[in-house]
Amino acid sequence: MKIKPPIFVTRRLPDPAMAILAEHCTVSWWDQVEMPIPRDELLRGVAAAEGLLCLITDRIDAEVIAAAPRLCAVSIMAVGYDNIDRAALAARGITLTNTPDVLTETTADLAWALLLAAARRVVEGHKLIERGEWGPWHPLQMVGQDIYGRVLGVVGAGRIGQAVLRRGRGFGMRLIYHNRRPNPILAAELGAEYRPLNDLLAESDAVVVTAPLTDETRGMFGSAQFALMKPASIFVNVARGPLVREDELVAALRAGRPWAAGLDVFDREPIGPDHPLLALPNVVLTPHIGSASVATRVRMATLAAENLVAVLSGRATPHIVK
Ligand code: DGY
């Protein structure tokens, strides 16, 4: 009988994913759905593991790698992997996989939900009704900003960014994007034009951030960038919080430029009810739920399981992080 490789999973995943893992591996897991694994449990958990399936809430650094002498594969149930020390993995020849593609459309939907909600003051309106403050209709009551027919600027036009741009076509928008370098396919397929970052910020009515967090992109949005944006513009971030200098965003929103923001990600998550962003009327906040539809989260979990099984059995998977 074939010996099943021991693996450790840092959270109880949806049943279909656990079933795939159990069929091919000897599985140990942190038996919680909501709470991240404590550090000492993680270090203990990986001690005998050849494979590790982790989430964005787990810091996988040199200490974890050192605690896992047999580890040869790490699979993250996410597209982003900035919580993983890739140099420490590479030094040991450990393969990393992620779960792109399956969450693209779901995350693009949330970017649009935030964009429209921020532009049209959806949450502010809801709260006003809740407080019993809805007075008689008047011409300038709760007026917001139009999105249809305006300019959409996407920063980081990878898979999710392109899906955001594609939706912009249905809204009759002119599309521009910023990447490290221009991508001719985006002009051909979406009619989206490349812009240097500062030009994109100055030209866009809606700026949507979908760039990965790297040493290069950390803190790329601060006072200087917000000052370039149009007074009526909307800023949306569904990527990673540390791309934005959050205190400078709060100051910029207080001063009214950008006009409003929709944010799914924050510098330190989770944020509490005393966070300064919550004191502002012109923000819509969600708790890092870009990929959180039932179907997508199950697909992400099963893909993460399939990736880990593939690497441990020496089979190819297209989701190896280069
Ligand atoms: C990701 O996949 O990187 C998201 O942030 C979590 O779904």
UniProtKB/TrEMBL annotation:
Signal peptide positions are: none
CDD domains from the UniProt entry: GDH (cd05301)
> Does Oxidoreductase show up as a keyword for this record?
yes
Keyword terms, alphabetized: Oxidoreductase
Per UniProt, the enzyme's principal EC class comes to oxidoreductase
| GO molecular function ontology, one term from the record | hydroxypyruvate reductase [NAD(P)H] activity
Q: Which residues form the D-isomer specific 2-hydroxyacid dehydrogenase catalytic domain?
A: 7-321
Q: What is its EC number?
A: 1.1.1.26
Pfam families the UniProt entry points to: 2-Hacid_dh (PF00389), 2-Hacid_dh_C (PF02826)
Source organism's superkingdom? Bacteria
For the D-isomer specific 2-hydroxyacid dehydrogenase NAD-binding domain, which residue ranges apply?
113-290
One cellular component (GO) term of this entry:
cytosol
- InterPro entries to which the protein is assigned, alphabetical: D-isomer_2-hydroxyacid_DH (IPR050223), D-isomer_2_OHA_DH_cat_dom (IPR006139), D-isomer_DH_CS1 (IPR029752), D-isomer_DH_NAD-bd (IPR006140), NAD(P)-bd_dom_sf (IPR036291)
Q: Which Gene3D superfamilies match?
A: NAD(P)-binding Rossmann-like Domain
According to its UniProt record, which protein family does this protein belong to?
Belongs to the D-isomer specific 2-hydroxyacid dehydrogenase family.
Please state what the protein is called: Glyoxylate reductase
UniProt source species: Chloroflexus aggregans (strain MD-66 / DSM 9485)
